[in-house]
Design a protein that fits this description.
InterPro entries: Acnase/IPM_dHydase_lsu_aba_1/3, Acoase/IPM_deHydtase_lsu_aba, Aconitase/3IPM_dehydase_swvl, Aconitase/IPM_isomerase, Aconitase_4Fe-4S_BS, Aconitase_4Fe-4S_dom, Aconitase_dom2, AconitaseA/IPMdHydase_ssu_swvl. The protein is of the alpha/beta class. Bound molecules: FE3-S4 cluster.
Length: 787
């Protein structure tokens, strides 16, 4: 037997050995049943089955019941998850869980008059501690009471903390954030879920997931020059598009895998969320071993070495789809604007800029520049932002700094605002010690807090007016309209940190560092050398400040008081939703017929609304305010069918609710794409919504709707979307016979009294039908505990 290895240094009693033993036993059963070579994804997923003997195992069809090893929650989603957990009545969480304070810290890049003209990381952190004091103290006390590890504000971004401390090869984790798959860089099956799923798992219930399909990505060759792991996923996003990974785990393999760092693999897995993938995973290798050792987990590395057979695909394993990428010829990419799958190889980006008529003061990336011009996108770069949970590894920071150093040597600086977001306190302390921070500030950068900041719209931007077209570039992952600064006219592009750094120094999006030149302070032309960075710090990581609060001993936990003031406008204890009354939904109003992209940012906007994540009634005032009304092409303006007046969407919903009129939303493709936030499902439920009827759903959002007792329905014939007028009334028939796989009928009634009918599909299974009947998954769970 091998020495017992704890899952993390914070959980001395939870052993990886036990996880591996259980995984081996389950896999032995599954292998016998399936009798075929398995992919890595299947090994890890099936290795966590609740019932390996009885579970149906058809990829893309069966609903699996799984036993994840841990739960991670960020502060914006943890509030509602903990509020829900509290209402379950359990004394403590049943699996190791953590809370991370990262989303509620606003980033500033210019002097703030209301804060003694301070700005940047330290000032932002202390400001956040003030304005969010109530929420932080709720989360800290709820964590202490229910046995959840609490990472204080300033500790870093959830996915970076998980990679540094908790992820282990072959493990399974769920996280209440859509970029949870980041841990796939350490061979973990890590899936982004809504808070409601986290509540199930913390309550000791199995977690349900439709058996994922597996997309194989074979990597051959080796990257060079300006190409980095980020470019692999920017390329994959271009191939698969924002929907292409839906219902699938993306599994990388091939000799190219060994030619990139563990943190680079994490970047690729992180951004797999942008193609809708359930998660992404890499097979265990030497680079993961090295990262585990460097982060103080040599024991876990030794265990994984011995368990390696189960941490990679079997020879001959079959994929549902196969993509091959030759790293030798992979170019740096710039993706955007407005969607992460609009991929431009660097050599074509300039053309895109020109073709689009975007301002092009930069002189790089020749073909990207053409794209900018051709499309009329603003080519004058207004800001560059590096770091975030996606790209703030030591290697990333080193490569970006190697570019910045060349500028400094030539006597030039960043031409535009440039921000650096370290992913964790450990990264911050380490790059400060190693002099990288100084390079960034000398070149004109502002170091922001170890937090999400501008990545989640928490950017108090002052240099550009709302509505003014402008371009920014970041090393983040998501670039939907208004995502970073709340300005829908901001054209956001994503690229690697080293490309972003080169761009800010040039100040122009059409600059291509692989061929264009810059002018130094002495008037001489300079070319930039390819970036270089060490994978891991030669002097080891510097942990920085201690930012962790461990839960107290069980005996003292019961004495911890969790306070929610009734007068609070940030937090509100939950009232259970009403159970289904057994009747069909009749003559429901159409609150809005949404047109085009309707992501969770459109349904429940982040940015300034993040502060109400723990207060359902207050946050409901943002419901669908970003969705485009098909009837008038406007946002947040719908006609109230009872009064005939145009009003805001949330106000109209409240009006219907007060009058007892049920309502539905009609929507387009991939409705609910983006984040895992269950607020996008809780809000319509709270304001009296009954069903969401769309052409197709993003997976997480569809499940979240079911958890809250809503009916997510899809048109059997997508053309029926066009039949519906916003003023029609819709009845949903046949609810008493709701059964897995069975269609429901919708009857539409037009203003003139004429009617029409169409069929809708639904994906409820038996268990989920019990949620609908009970009024919510939580109601069903509470009833089960009481019984
Ligand atoms: Fe935060 Fe942006 Fe990552 S919001 S968790 S840094 S995707």
């Amino acid at each position: 037997g091998m020495e017992k290895v704890a899952m993390s240094r914070f959980e001395a009693e939870e052993y990886i050995n036990d996880r591996y033993t259980a995984m081996e036993q389950r896999l032995a059963i599954v292998r016998k049943r399936l009798n075929k070579p398995l992919t890595l994804a299947e090994k890890v997923v099936y290795g966590h089955l609740d019932d390996p003997e009885g579970q149906e195992l058809e990829r893309g069809v069966s609903y699996l019941k799984l036993r994840p090893d841990r739960v991670a929650m960020q502060d914006a989603t943890a509030q509602m998850a903990m509020l829900q957990f509290i209402s379950s009545g359990l004394p403590k969480t049943m699996v190791p869980s953590t809370i991370h304070c990262d989303h509620l810290i606003e980033g500033t890049t210019s002097p703030q008059p209301d804060r003694d003209n301070s700005f940047g990381g330290e000032a932002d952190l202390s400001h956040a501690k003030n304005v969010n004091a109530e929420v932080y103290s709720f989360l800290a006390s709820a964590g202490a009471k229910y046995g959840v590890g609490f990472w204080k504000p300033g500790s870093g971004i959830i996915h970076q903390i998980v990679l540094e401390n908790y992820a282990f090869p072959g493990g399974m984790m769920i996280g209440t954030d859509s970029h949870t798959p980041n841990a796939g860089g350490l061979g973990m099956c890590a899936v982004g879920v809504g808070g409601a799923d986290a509540v199930d798992v913390m309550a000791g219930l199995p977690w349900e997931l439709k058996a994922p399909k597996v997309i194989g990505v074979k990597l051959t060759g080796k990257m060079s020059k300006w190409t980095s792991p980020k470019d692999v996923i920017l390329k994959v996003a271009g191939i698969l598009t924002v929907k292409g990974g839906t219902g699938a785990i993306v599994e990388y393999f091939g000799e190219g895998v060994d030619n990139m760092s563990c943190t680079g693999m994490a970047t690729i897995c992180n951004m797999g969320a942008e193609i809708g993938a359930t998660t992404s995973m890499f097979p265990y290798n030497k680079r993961m071993h090295d990262y585990l050792v460097a982060t103080g987990r040599g024991g876990a590395a030794a265990l994984a070495d011995a368990f390696k057979e189960n941490l990679q695909a079997d020879a001959g394993a079959e994929y549902d789809q196969l993509i091959e990428i030759d790293l030798n010829s992979l170019e740096p990419h710039v993706n955007g604007p407005f969607t992460p799958d609009l991929a431009h190889p660097l050599s074509k980006f300039a053309d895109a800029i020109r073709a689009n008529g975007w301002p092009s003061e930069l002189k790089w990336l020749s073909q990207f520049a053409d794209a900018i011009r051709a499309n009329g996108w603003p080519s004058e770069l207004k800001a560059g932002l590096i770091g975030s949970c996606t790209n703030s590894s030591y290697e990333d920071m080193q490569r970006a700094a190697s570019v910045a150093r060349q500028a400094l040597k030539a006597g030039i600086k960043s031409k535009v605002p440039f921000t650096i977001t370290p992913g964790s306190e450990q990264i911050r302390a380490t790059i400060e010690r190693d002099g990288l921070m100084e390079v960034f500030t000398q070149v004109g950068g502002t170091v922001l807090a170890n937090a999400c900041g501008p990545c989640i719209g928490q950017w108090k931007r002052t240099d550009v007016a709302k509505g003014e077209a402008n371009s920014i570039i970041s090393s983040y992952n998501r670039n939907f309209a208004a995502r970073n600064d709340g300005n829908p006219a901001t054209h956001a592009f994503v690229a690697s940190p080293e490309i972003v750094t080169a761009m800010v120094i040039a100040g122009d999006l059409t600059f291509n560092p692989e061929k264009d030149t810059l002018v130094g302070a002495d008037g001489k032309e300079i070319s930039l050398d390819s970036p270089f960075g060490d994978e891991l710090p030669a002097a080891g990581f510097d942990p920085g400040m201690d930012t962790y609060q461990a839960p107290p001993e069980p005996a003292s936990r019961s004495r911890v008081q969790v306070d929610v003031a009734p007068s609070s406008n940030r937090l509100q204890l939950l009232e259970p939703f009403k159970a289904w009354d057994g009747a069909d939904i009749t003559d429901a109003a159409i609150l809005i017929k949404a047109k085009g992209k309707c992501t969770t940012d459109h349904i429940s906007m982040a940015g300034p609304w993040l502060k109400y994540r723990g207060h359902l009634d207050n946050i409901s005032n943002n419901m669908l305010i970003g969705a485009v009304n098909a009837a008038n092409e406007k946002v947040n303006a719908v006609v109230n069918v009872l009064t005939g007046e145009e009003d805001a969407v949330p106000a109209t919903a409240r009006y219907y609710k007060a009058k007892g009129l049920p309502w539905v939303v009609v929507g387009d493709e991939n409705y609910g794409e983006g984040s895992s936030r269950e607020h996008a499902a809780l809000e319509p439920r709270h304001l009296g919504g009954a069903a969401i009827i769309v052409k197709s759903f993003a997976r997480i959002h569809e499940t979240n709707l079911k958890k809250q007792g809503m009916l997510p329905l899809t048109f059997a014939d997508p053309a029926d979307y066009d039949k519906i007028d916003s003023t029609d009334r819709l009845s949903i028939l046949g609810l008493a016979g709701l059964a897995p796989g069975k269609q429901l009928t919708i009857q539409g009634k037009r203003k003139d009294g004429s009617t029409y009918e169409f069929e809708v599909n639904q994906t409820f299974n038996e268990n989920q039908i019990s949620w609908f009947k009970a009024g919510s998954a939580l109601n069903a769970m509470a009833a089960a505990f009481a019984a």
